[in-house]
Amino acid sequence: MNQSFFPPRRVLMGPGPSDVPDRVLGALARPTIGHLDPLFVGLMDDIKTLLQYAFQTTNSLTVPVSAPGSAGMEACFVNLLSPGDTVIVCRNGVFGGRMQENVERCGATAIMVEDEWGEPVSAAKVAAAFAAHPEATTLAFVHAETSTGVRSDTAALCALARDHGALSIVDTVTSLGGIELQVDAWGADAVYSGTQKCLSCVPGLSPVTFSPAAVARINSRTQKVQSWFLDMQLVMGYWGGESKRAYHHTAPINTLYALHESLLMLREEGLEASHARHHRNHLALVAGLEAMGLEMAVAASHRLPQLNLVRIPPGIDDAGVRQTLLTEFNLEIGAGLGALAGKTWRIGLMGHASTATNVTLCLSALGVALARQGLAVSTERALAAANAVLAS
Fold it and tell me: ∠155-160-166 over CA atoms, to 5°?
């Protein structure tokens, strides 16, 4: 017999979604009002201002797309690309490959810059690609690659694009709110993210921001954007109308309540404090994992503090460990993706889930799961190492 669904309260330490605080969940339950209600229009303006703070931008075209991060990605590509364009696409993990898919579906040509999974995007390779393809109009890359836990140098890559007269499209799905992101200072042109990672909001929205140069390209298009729903010229009639909002779609009203609340929490904590919290908990987790005898799969110089890639020891059943964590500790960590499937775990410390309590829970639970499979580990030593970092 069908009945109401009541999920358990998990500790979400995978690659996303992250734990959603009660304050944000409470915002979801507030009364629904109309999407053209003057009070809701005022809330939309507030959300735009808070997103500008999160992105560190003054871009007027800064909105949450009413769909997950993948739609934000597509919005950037379909608005900026036209058939026949040449785009340099950087792939050092799964999500660079998705950028390639978007380029090709727009009828453009993707020039691929390949780096090993677990390595950042090479600025030298990008420079060489621009030298070989001076006709390139756009550079696309991932700031924080969710499949590998790697951070690439966004400031340097955006500068390369700018120096070659190209616009930049940047994936910040896993970075927004967790590590430094300076859209204006770095000169990024089209940037998209998601709400379910370091913002600790529910999934279903994709914050995007477009620079004046990107807006100019959108306004100079000679053919319609291939997606009606994601056409920014139409969306801005709803999100950007100064005196009158033009109906475009029925916005996900309650989800936007939740985003507003999560952005308020980020503003109250402060970006620098949020970044420092993610970094401190990351260092504690790494210290504990290494004291346990586990190895990190990414060099310290370009690790993401909010997403930790850990090598699975030989002989350990990947799925068995994750199942033990889920069923016995209500703790979710992520499996490896693509070439790293079965070889790595992805342990998230994102947003509301980035706490000292979760660091120690994860280490304790892993100790139990690994010992059960016959691996000699010292959970006590791991916890001591983590606590030493947290106390310093």
Answer: 115
Q: What is the DSSP letter of 350?
A: -
Tokens for 57, please give them: 């931008």
Q: What is the pLDDT of residues 69-106, one digit of tens each?
A: 999 999 999 999 999 999 999 999 999 999 999 999 99
The chain-wide mean pLDDT, for the chain, equals 96
Taking the C-alpha atoms of residue 262 and residue 268, their distance in angstroms, rounded to an integer, is: 10
Contacts of residue 84, defined as CB under 8 A and 6 or more positions apart, other chains included, come to 107, 108, 109
Burial 129-156 (b: 16+ CB within 10 A, else e): bbeebeebbbbbbbbbbbbbbbbbbbee
pLDDT tens-digit map of 204-258:
999 999 999 999 999 999 999 999 999 999 988 888 755 567 788 889 999 999 9
**142, containing H or E segment:** strand 138-142
First to last CA, the chain: 54
Given phi > 0 = left and psi -120 to 50 = alpha, else beta, which region is 143? alpha
Q: Show Cβ contacts of residue 49 under 8 Å, excluding neighbours closer than 6 positions.
A: none
